[in-house]
């Protein structure tokens, strides 16, 4: 399944030791770069509703498939997916387009990368907009160790790390079913499923809620993961404890102007102390689940563009 014609066509760009599949739109010579960073298990195409709105507002929109996703490189070493490499790719992308800094927008895991990028390279970030995942306080214990202590060995973050390759194979064998079950909206509000949630989703014959996207749109994601497999993206999870160590010397306070967009029906918890770490943050809440920019595209665009205009 090819990318629909109304979405930018990709270019493969060599940088930071990898090739990234990059979709871009808008005029570079007008400046105003904005980089959209997808989450897991996602694709640059998850920003399909935001790209035209941002271009119309005068932005040069840059949307990479980050390493491990789509046609971008997926290195064999797990440590090649740590926050230094992921942030380094985005810095190299700025260098490629000859930008000193940009506004970075992240959803889900993409938000985690944008938070980390801003800690590691604050001078290269102009503004921060993140969806679903708030800033994660570093704390006293590495993140996977902490999750294992709280939720046990079957919690999917922990299982990805402790049983390397098991979830990857099951998701690879059930790609369409997993993504069909994952990309849903209007899912009943229930506590997060315990244990190996992603494996359970991959094996479930009957999805909950309503489809998030059309069959043709879902096919873009399915085809991409059938070609890339899931290991590259899961390797992001396998670097959480490494990232905890890599961020030890970073100033934990982000002073940049920031916008945090939550879905009120998202199972990802809102931060109770976000202002302690991101003092210049504004918060928007939308009536939706986890896939915010796809579930509520117009409301998301309105929130982003209004906030950007307020910062000028």
How is the secondary structure organized here?
Layout: E1 10-15, E2 18-25, E3 33-37, H1 50-56, E4 60-65, H2 83-96, E5 102-107, H3 109-120, E6 125-131, H4 143-151, H5 156-162, H6 166-173, H7 175-182, E7 184-185, H8 197-203, E8 210-211, H9 215-228, H10 231-237, H11 240-246, E9 258-263, H12 274-277, E10 281-286, H13 292-295, H14 297-311
Parallel strand pairs: 3-4, 3-5, 5-6, 6-9, 9-10
Antiparallel strand pairs: 1-2, 2-4, 7-8
Given the structure, what is the number of helices? 14
Q: How are the strands of the biggest sheet laid out side by side?
A: 1-2-4-3-5-6-9-10
Tally the structural domains. 1
Named CATH architecture: 3-Layer(aba) Sandwich
The description of the largest β-sheet is: 8 strands, mixed
Structural class: alpha/beta
What is the CATH class name? Alpha Beta
Q: Assign a percent range to the helix content.
A: 25-40%
Distance between the termini: 40 Å
Using DSSP, what is the number of strands? 10
Shape: globular
What share of the residues does DSSP label as strand, in percent?
15-25%
Give the SSE order as H and E letters: EEEHEHEHEHHHHEHEHHHEHEHH
Please tell me the overall pLDDT: 95
Gyration radius, to the nearest Å? 18 Å
Low-pLDDT residue spans: none
CATH superfamily: Alpha/Beta hydrolase fold, catalytic domain
